[in-house]
Structure formats: C-alpha cells, structure tokens
Specification:
Elements lengths: L3 H5 L5 E5 L5 E5 L7 H14 L4 E3 L1 H10 L5 H17 L1 H10 L2 H6 L7 H13 L7 H16 L4 H15 L8 H14 L5 H15 L2 H4 L6 H11 L4 H14 L4 H9 L2 H11 L3 H15 L6 H5 L2 H8 L6 H17 L2 H9 L2 H15 L2 H17 L4 H10 L2 H8 L5 H16 L9
Parallel strand pairs: 2-3
Antiparallel strand pairs: 1-2
Helix pairs in contact: 2-4, 3-4, 4-5, 4-7, 7-9, 8-9, 8-10, 9-11, 10-11, 11-14, 13-14, 14-17, 17-20, 20-23, 22-23, 23-26, 25-26
C-alpha cells in the first residue's frame, strides 16, 4: 500500500505517483549527483515496491543499468539482484531491460565471483523469451562470454546454470546462433559430457541435441566414437528425461550408419532400452524408442535381424495392445516404417516376431475407434507387406485372414475416407492382379 512512510523514504531524485487503479509509479529523474548512500536507498525502495502493484518509468531501467556498472561493489552487486527480480517480474520488464541494453552489463558481470549466478539467471530469463531484439551478433557475444567464464573453472552450480542459459539460446527460433559460434562452443559441450556431475553431463547432452535438431548446423558437425560411448554411459543412468533426450539425439546423429549402430550394440543399447521400457512404459519412453527404431534400426543392413529378434522389439510390439490411441499411433507408425524400409526377408522376420497378429489387432481396434491415423498406418503396412512378398503371398494372406484382418479390409473398401478406401482396395486387388489362387473366397 502507498503510505507516507514510503513517500518519506523516497530519494530526492525520485517521485512516486499513485495511479487511479492503485498502481504505484516510480519516476527516477537521474543519479548524476547522488551519493552511494542515496543510490542504495533507491535500490531498497525499488525492492520494497516490487512487492506491490507497481509500474516503473523507463528511466528506472536506464538508472539500474548504470548502477550495475558502478565503481562501488555494493551498489553493483545489489542493483544486479534487483534487476533479476525485475526481469523475473514480467515478460514486459525483461523486454524493456533488453531494449535498454542490459546484455552488455550482464556479460561484464560474468567474472569469477558470487554475483555470477544472478547474471546467469537474468540471461536465462531473457533467452527463454526468445526476443527478436537478441540478434545473432548478441548471441555470439553471449557465447564468447560464457566460454571465457567456463575457462575460469567455476563451481558446478555456475556451470549448470551456464548450461541452462545455452540450452535456452539453442532452443530459440528467432535469430539462430551462427555456425561459427556453434563450432566454438561445441568442444566445451563435448568435454562436459564426461563431467562426473550427472546434471552437468546430461545438460550438455541436451544442448548438443538442440543444436543437432537444426539440419543446417548438424551437417557441419562431426563426432568421434568416444562421444557416442559417453552418451551411452549417460543412457544407462536411470533418468527418464535424459534417456529420452539421448535416444532422440541418437536418432538425429546416427541415421542408418551401421558402423555407429555397431557402437551402440557393443555398449548394450537394446538391453538398456528394454530396462527403460519395463521400468516405465510411459508414452514419452515409448515415443522416444519408436522414433529411434524408425530412424536408426530399420535401415540397418548388418543388424536388422538381431534388431527384429530382440526382446526390445517384442516389447514394443506388445504395446500395440494398449487402449491409448496415442500409443497406437506411434506403434502403428513404427510398423509401417519397418515394412516400408524392409525387403521380403525382413517382412518374414517381422512375421516370425509375431508382428502380424499385433497388426491385425490394431486394425480391428482402429476400425472401432475410427482413428484415421492408426487405420492409415496399419493399412499402409499391410500394403507394403503384400507388395514385397509376392512369393509368400498365399501364406501371408492366410495369416491375415485367420486373424480377422481381411474382413475389416473388405469393409473398409467402402469407407468414406478416400485414403483409407484406396489402401483397402489396393490390398484386396493385389492378389487379383497376380492371378489370385490363395483363397476361393476372394
């Protein structure tokens, strides 16, 4: 509340106005002739007012940026703490600070000492907002300052907050970090993967993931085998979010490279994934595992048989029984990618792995729920399987008939959705086109 005591405590170069809506507005006329004691009183006043409905004139932001560069260490430190509160107060306040030029004073504060944490917190808040005003040059300057700071070997808490700052920046959509800055910071990110502090190591893995999601950046980066070994070490630590991120990172980096897939196999990735899924078959864990199989494993030439015969793949197949439509979408999508990328030999391996009954059950469920994505995925899988296994068509067609899938496909030939109808008709006409001798019924 506005009271006379607050007004009496106001430094001579300020004024407080009470707006009609009850908001207090503090105006700062200037601090040129003020003493350090008066400046400290201003800081205390602002801290008090920040606990009330308060509006600040732009001059206040300019004033505090000057105080952050004060020759008096107390003023410099205390003003920084207040700027953190202001930045954390609202997006609008954070934006005004940026517009007034807060970045440079913050970077100047990144010296070894106890004020670093507040500087890093403010940078984190600002970068989280992805302001257009933070251009590529500014981001490059931030990265350079962080690198210099990390060279001083700060405490783990400060390293971790530096990682959070970088992750916020790498997650920005506006003004992406220039490639030369990415290359400059990457050796530090890779080095911190080996840090014994799990939070630091996993945080760096996340930073690398964010950078590699940009194809323009990823294609200019190379990683030696030791990086994958370190990531696999982190994957084995039972932290769900980190495991999901590392699988996603592998999906981005490895592709269908059998040499790199071999490194994963040598370090027990299938067993690690199985343990992760058994411990918590959450949607997020299933999703990360499915995407990994789709992007990495199904294109492998050397390891595909071992992959299809693995307990991990059997476990993923079993999730087709889930009543969660979201899980059904991911699993049916995985089936389609596997069939699409595979050849006749792989399709027969899928059959041995009991994929066909799971596919039939998904089709029957999807007809009842009428989820078009699941229906489309399953029908596309059927089509891919039948078109690649002409020499085994009668055997495969019989499998689908026995599990009830053919009855569903026949009904879907009359579906209102053109895509679903087209897939169904394509499947049913396939054998006619090849002189169907598989079933008198058709």
């Amino acid at each position: 509340m506005f009271n006379s005591n607050l007004a009496n405590d106001t430094p001579h170069f300020t004024s407080i106005i009470k707006e009609p809506d009850g908001t207090l507005r503090l105006n700062v006329l200037g601090i040129i002739n003020s003493t350090y004691e008066e400046q400290y009183e201003l800081i205390k006043l602002v801290n008090t007012m920040l606990q009330m409905p308060t509006a600040f004139h732009d001059d206040l932001f300019t004033t505090f940026l000057k105080l952050m560069d004060s020759k008096n260490e107390t003023i410099k430190y205390e003003s920084l703490k207040t700027v953190f509160i202001i930045a954390n107060n609202s997006t609008e306040s954070a934006l005004i600070l940026v517009q007034k030029g807060v970045i440079l004073p913050l970077l100047n504060h990144l010296q070894f000492g106890d004020r670093n944490l507040n500087s890093l917190h403010i940078l984190y808040i600002i970068l989280q907002n992805d302001f257009l005003e933070i251009d590529e040059a500014t981001k490059s300057n931030i990265i350079s300052a962080l690198i210099n700071f990390l060279e001083c070997k700060p405490a783990d808490e400060l390293i971790l907050q530096s990682i959070h700052v970088m992750a916020s920046m790498f997650n920005n959509h506006n003004n992406p970090l220039p490639l030369n800055s990415v290359k400059k910071v990457m050796p530090y990110l890779l080095a911190f993967l080996k840090n014994p502090n799990f939070e630091i190591a996993s945080g760096n893995a996340y930073c690398i993931l964010l950078l590699t999601l940009d194809d323009n950046v990823k294609h200019h980066l190379t990683f030696d085998d030791s990086v994958f070994v370190e990531l696999l070490r982190l994957l084995k630590i039972k932290n769900e979010l980190t495991q999901q991120r590392i699988l996603t990172l592998f999906s981005s980096l490895i592709g269908e490279n059998d040499k790199k897939i071999g490194i994963l196999f040598d370090n027990g990735i299938l067993e690690t994934m199985k343990e992760m899924l058994l411990e918590n078959p959450s949607l997020e864990n299933i999703m990360a595992s499915v995407i990994f199989f789709q992007k990495n494993f199904f294109g492998s030439q050397k390891f595909i048989e071992e992959i299809i015969n693995s307990d991990t793949f059997s476990l993923l197949i079993s999730y087709s029984e889930s009543d969660d439509i979201r899980v059904q979408k991911y699993i049916s999508g995985m089936f389609f990618v596997g069939a699409f990328k595979g050849n006749a030999k792989h399709v027969l391996l899928f059959r041995q792995a009991k994929l066909f009954p799971a596919l039939c059950n998904l089709l029957i469920k999807a007809e009842k729920s009428y989820d078009k994505i699941v229906l489309g995925n399953v029908l596309a899988t059927f089509w891919s399987i039948t078109s690649k296994t002409e020499n085994y068509k009668c055997q495969i067609f019989q499998d689908f008939e026995e599990c009830g899938a053919i009855d569903v496909v026949i009904r879907l030939e009359a579906d209102e959705d053109d895509k679903i109808q087209s897939f169904a008709k394509g499947i049913m006409s396939f054998y006619d086109q090849h002189g169907n001798t598989c079933s008198k019924r058709y």
